Amino acid sequence: MIRHPNIKNVFWFVVKSTYLLFAISIVIGALVVFIFWNTERTSNNILSSNSNQFRVTADAKRFVKPDAANIVLTTIIKGKEVREVQAKASEIINKATAEIKKLGVLEEEIKTSNYNISPEYDYSSSKQVLIGYSSSISLTIKTKLLDKVGAIIDSATQNGINSVSSLNFYIEDLTKVQDELKLQAIENAKVKAIELARTSGLNLGKLKNVEDANSYNPYVYSPMLNSVSDSMAKSSPSSEPINLTVQAGQSEISSSVTLVYQID
Predict the structure, then answer these.
(1) In degrees, to the nearest 5, what angle opens at C-alpha 242 toward C-alphas 238 and 245?
(2) What is the pTM of this model?
């Protein structure tokens, strides 16, 4: 006797098969869409959304040695009376300034900054007791004597300065260097555009636009002597200099441009 397949089983088999085919179709469709989208996105690196435009990006870089330094030197003074603290701070700053000028730093390159004085209290007992005053005063020095930076710091610490707040090197005429690099980046982009167009079989038309974005990565030197030790700050003026050597290093400057051409 021949047994016929159960109609119910056949029905569910057909349903499951249809569902499986539907799921596979969705996966294949999604994969095709992803590949197409990714291909379009890649091609847009050269061709803009406007099909008659051609975009190409190039850059130019250069390592340049900084030609100026900014130094901030600070002294912190404590005393019983305000006038005592002020007098001592003034004496130290004036003396340090005079010695720094002897190294060739011009008077207009030195300025007093960040001056403040505040009371100090003792909270060990149940009451707030005034025990004195603390003063902080800084000298900001901008100089192009990079070979004297170490000597400037050493001279200052030998004459009462007890903290190197900051030290950084920079390029004074940065705009000039950036402009030169922009022109070089444009030339590089033109060469690149010709090569890409020839490889892609495109005919370049007029240059429609130039987009640029300069970037500057300054070299910043953070000295190990952020706070000069008390023993060094209190050393006598006759102490031998420590001959601190500070290297300015180099700064990388770059310019990036994008040229937009019309496609004939």
Answers:
(1) 145
(2) 0.63
